[in-house]
Specification:
The complex is a heterodimer of chains A (109) and B (113).
Chain A (H helix, E strand, L loop, with lengths): L2 E3 L3 E5 L4 E8 L3 E9 L6 E6 L3 E5 L2 E6 L4 E6 L8 E9 L4 E3 L3 E6 L1
Parallel strand pairs in A: 2-11
Antiparallel strand pairs in A: 1-3, 3-8, 4-5, 4-9, 6-7, 7-8, 9-10, 9-11
Chain B lengths: L3 E4 L2 E4 L5 E7 L5 E7 L5 E9 L2 E4 L6 E3 L9 E3 L8 E8 L8 E2 L3 E5 L1
Parallel strand pairs in B: 2-11
Antiparallel strand pairs in B: 1-3, 3-8, 4-5, 4-9, 5-6, 7-8, 9-10, 9-11
Classes of the chains: A mainly beta (109), B mainly beta (113).
Chain lengths: 109, 113
């Protein structure tokens, strides 16, 4: 089967940098994705890694190490609106796509 | 361009009733999935489809049926509703495989009493 682990909660102050880690177990790994979800809303796509290394999209960056089955999401210049839940998710060659339990990020003024 | 449309947005069912949650996308995406999200939890995969006529089970398929007769539509059927199926249901679609860039619908909040 597939399993993912990520911290349940992270707190940081406005303007800071925060890293949310994700470790996974799956067969036939295809890619690691990150999604953001505000309370009461739907998940929205943030970033995707299929190969090792860093992907940068504005204030958000995502990193993947396939050999370590590990990735992280890096959020820079934190803003209050970044307070949300963040989910990592793995896709595999079986075509299904499974989410982690989510990390709740609280940004303090 | 509507994206992924889910109906209804809210629904209350009695135990034992059946119903269909509708999901439609207008982006010509091959990949579609149904997830459920319980309070404070992540999203759990119910069923998914890699194209018209092809469906498969996810992590929590029991009590649910799906079909994919067209690329656009992917309805989820609750066969005999149980209180344990009280949840928020999300439909999602993607052009590519592996989970890149899934677009989610706004969700259906289902309560089974």
């Amino acid at each position: 089967g597939q399993s993912l682990e990520q911290p349940s909660e992270v707190t940081a102050v406005e303007g800071a940098i925060v890293q949310i880690n994700c470790t996974y177990q799956t067969s036939g790994f295809y890619g690691l994705s990150w999604y953001q979800q505000h309370d009461g809303g739907a998940p929205t796509f943030l970033s995707y890694n299929a190969l090792d290394g860093l992907e940068e999209t504005g204030r958000f960056s995502s990193f993947l190490s396939r050999s370590d089955s590990y990735g992280y999401l890096l959020l820079q210049e934190l803003q209050m609106k970044d307070s949300a839940s963040y989910f990592c998710a793995v896709g595999n060659y079986g075509q299904n796509f499974v989410f982690g339990p989510g990390t709740r990020l609280s940004v303090l003024p | 361009n509507a994206g992924v449309t889910q109906t209804p947005k809210f629904q209350v069912l009695k135990t034992g009733q059946s119903m269909t949650l509708q999901c439609a996308q207008d982006m010509n995406h091959e990949y579609m999935s149904w997830y459920r999200q319980d309070p404070g939890m992540g999203l759990r995969l119910i069923h998914y489809s890699v194209g018209a006529g092809i469906t498969d089970q996810g992590e929590v398929p029991n009590g649910y049926n799906v079909s994919r007769s067209t690329t656009e539509d992917f309805p989820l059927r609750l066969l005999s509703a149980a209180p344990s199926q009280t949840s928020v249901y999300f439909c999602a679609s993607s052009l590519g495989q592996g989970g890149r860039g899934y677009t989610f619908g706004s969700g259906t909040r289902l309560t089974v009493v």
